[in-house]
């Protein structure tokens, strides 16, 4: 698969932004839930750069954060988050292309699949209970999910209209 230099640079920028967001906003609690700021650049990478670069950025972001800041812990958190973000990147890119570039539907489906993958990984790695998974995946992330559903389509549309990043050229 051919990857353009522009998409590779955008993916690298979004990966760096994901690490910076985690360091800056990782523990921010908003309306009783977490901001989930590290997810925003990964989902945007899947939308703008496609599934291949979305997978690479999604796998690298939590591992880099764990290596650089020792948070999240490598096992089980960083591995489970890496699987979640891999699903985010690939699902966002594939759904966006398949569903005639419907940003909202692509985001909602990819977030659902990614959060489900995270829950399955936590269940496998540390034998979390179903109630703990639902609390971590749904309740704690509601503010972040709402922000992502509102903010990411606006960013994608703005980048497309200004010509900085054409979503149809991926």
- How far apart lie the N and C ends? 11 Å
What is the tally of beta strands? 2
Count of runs of 4 or more consecutive helical residues? 7
Described by the principal axes of the CA atoms, the overall outline is: globular
What order do the strands of the largest sheet run in, or round the barrel if closed?
A: 1-2
Low-confidence stretches: none
SS content category: mainly alpha
Instruction: Name the helix and strand elements from N-terminus to C-terminus, one letter apiece.
Output: HEEHHHHHH
Mean pLDDT: 86
Strand residue percentage? under 5%
Helix content: over 70%
Rg measurement, Å: 15 Å
Largest β-sheet summary: 2 strands, antiparallel
Task: Describe what you observe in this structure.
The longest helix has 25 residues, at 74-98. The model has no long low-confidence stretch (mean pLDDT 86). Helix content is 77%, strand content 2%. The protein is mostly helical and 170 residues long. It has helices spanning 5-25, 39-49, 51-69, 74-98, 103-126, 130-139, 142-162, and strands at 29-30, 33-34. Helix 2 runs antiparallel to helix 3 (51-69) and helix 5 packs across helix 7.
